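Human: Note token order:
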Amino acid sequence: MGEVFGALCAGGFCIGTYALLASGAGWLAHRRMRTVEADLDRAAAPPDERRYLLYAAASVVWLSAAVISVIGFVKRDWARVGRDACFIFLAHIGLSVLGGVGQMLSEMMFGRAHIAPLVIMACSIVLASATTSVGFLWRWGTLRVARIEAMPSTGDAPGSERFAIYLASVLVGMVGPITAFIFKEPQNVRVGITAMRISLAWLFLIVVTVCLVLSSLAVVHG
């Protein structure tokens, strides 16, 4: 009983310490953004949808979140982007801290390291990253379509061939994201974004399935 209580206290101390540090860092980033925006009298972010692409990348690649945070700190016009990237980075590290604490508790309470908590936490990090990234890309697509379709059309909209593009987006995952950048005219931008969303939904389903299978195997055989 004493070992269990000690393990819980140690885990709580680690989580509490990180929560305090992360709260302080997040508050400083938010405070700086508010100060910069008060000076600029506008949002300290790019006027179009580009920042959501950065958020999507930051959600998957931890290092990019840290780099974007530093850029936002140095470049005043990007203070809001830096603040948001800082939040994403802190969330990444927080999930890693929870995973480490779970592994530590498992070893202290059961006398040996169990693989199940580590695998479950790793899969949770992957799922959280994928979910956040897909959400940002979805938002990016919505804003991109709204901005470009407001421009005058320069040709005819795609006909039935768009369904071949949608099918290719399912069969080859990268077709959708590539098409989203190739189709950038008012008459076809919606087709590109739809193809991207189809690819994202399919890839996300694969990620969820793999994570669930790995977690289940870890619980059964760990």
Q: What stands out?
A: The chain has a mean pLDDT of 85.
